[in-house]
Amino acid sequence: MTFRSIFVHQDDSSQSELTLDAALRLARHYPAELDGGYIVPTREMTPMASAFLPSDMVEARLRATAEAQAAAEARFRKAAAAAGVKSIRWSAPAGDPVDAAVVQARYSDLAVVSQPPRDERAGAFASELVNAVIMDSGRPVLVVPFIGAGKTLGERILIAWKDSRESARAVDDALPLIKDAKAVEVLAVMPRDDESVRDHVTDIAVEGFLKRHQVHATVKRTVAPDIQAGEFLLSRAADFGADLIVMGGYSRPRLSRLVWGGVSKLLLDSMTVPVLMSH
Predict the structure, then answer these.
(1) In terms of domains, do 161 and 30 share one?
(2) Which residue from 217, 202, 132, 113 is spatially nearest to 163, judged by alpha carbons?
(3) Average pLDDT for residues 13-30, to the nearest whole number?
(4) What pLDDT, in 10s, does the model give residues 159-175?
(5) 189-203, 230-244, 264-278: the lowest-pLDDT one
(6) pTM over cut 0.70
(7) Domain end point (choices 85, 120, 144)
(8) Residue 30 pLDDT
(9) Which of 184, 273, 182 has the alpha carbon at shortest distance from 220?
(10) pLDDT at residue 206 is higher than 60
(11) Of 272, 279, 234, 275, the residue nearest 257 (C-alpha)
(12) Residue 248 lies in a domain
């Protein structure tokens, strides 16, 4: 099992360069084809909107859009060439941008996106896109923080474990990275100090699953209230020197694309290292 195709979201923000850097590192390592998708909220001007605007304004808008798209493509191709990644694709899909991101991610082995910015105007679309890709693509999603990935990516992995479909899916999806890591720690955070026989059995099960893939890791359990679980994971990631967190995303039902769930929301808001999520 490995990554043979990687989708990376690109737009006009400064974050795109950092997201692309992480994707290029992975594409070079495995190796994988890199699929760059230029997906922005205002790429197209509808015929209805253009009908109410002066023709010179419409032309200026279309010209600016084309120039932005061309500049993004040039940056993508230049960065790929500098990284030595030759197998690349570039597209600027039409239609609903969020749906386009989901589809491109769905037909890749891994999707790479940026942590949504805190700016309310830009953040709403970015949050919707990231949320939808995680929930609807059926693929693992690597979310790159504002500061980008560190000098290493996937050498020291912290797995946030719980006995759930999402966690099991995330561990399996991340196996190419986990098997290549130099150190792996599995951490289960419990809301109360009442470890059950089931907890013990599932700890042994996930430890055995990893061992069968030549990954030696021990499941550690700690107690932290739900509201503090995310902070604890980030603190432990720092202590462990993790350069990647692997976790299941949205184990609780969401109400819409814009509603984040518990620990997933906190990590996506406050991440300090890349987070690979699967749903």
Answers:
(1) no
(2) 202
(3) 96
(4) 999 888 899 999 999 99
(5) 189-203
(6) yes
(7) 144
(8) 96
(9) 184
(10) yes
(11) 279
(12) yes
Written as one string, the DSSP assignment of 46-91 is -HHHHHTS-HHHHHHHHHHHHHHHHHHHHHHHHHHHHHT---EEEE
Give 165: exposed, middle or buried? Use CB within 10 Å, 0-12, 13-18, 19+.
Answer: exposed
CA distance 201 to 198: 5
- With beta carbons less than 8 A apart as the criterion, state whether 161 and 278 touch: no
Q: How many domains does the chain have?
A: 2
pLDDT band at residue 260 under the 50/70/90 scheme: very low
Which pLDDT belongs to residue 264?
76
Q: What is the DSSP string of 164-180?
A: SHHHHHHHHHTHHHHHH
Could you tell me if 43 and 118 lie in one domain? Answer: yes
**235 and 106 together in one domain:** no
Cα 41 to Cα 45, 115, 226: the distances in Å are 11, 16, 34
Task: Return the closest-CA partner of residue 134 out of 234, 265, 1, 239.
Answer: 265
* CATH number of residue 186's parent domain: 3.40.50.620
Residues 61 and 109 reside in one and the same domain: yes
Cα-flanking dihedrals φ and ψ of residue 60, to 5°? -65, -40
What angle do the packed helices 262-270 and 226-240 form, to 10 degrees? Answer: 40
Cβ neighbours for 28, distance < 8 A, ≥ 6 positions apart: 83, 84, 85
Q: Which residue has the tokens 């061992």?
A: 211
Nearest to 133, CA basis, from 54, 13, 19, 32 = 19
The SS3 of residue 125 is: helix
Question: Which range marks the domain in which residue 82 is found?
Answer: 5-144
Assess if residue 177 is contained within a domain. yes
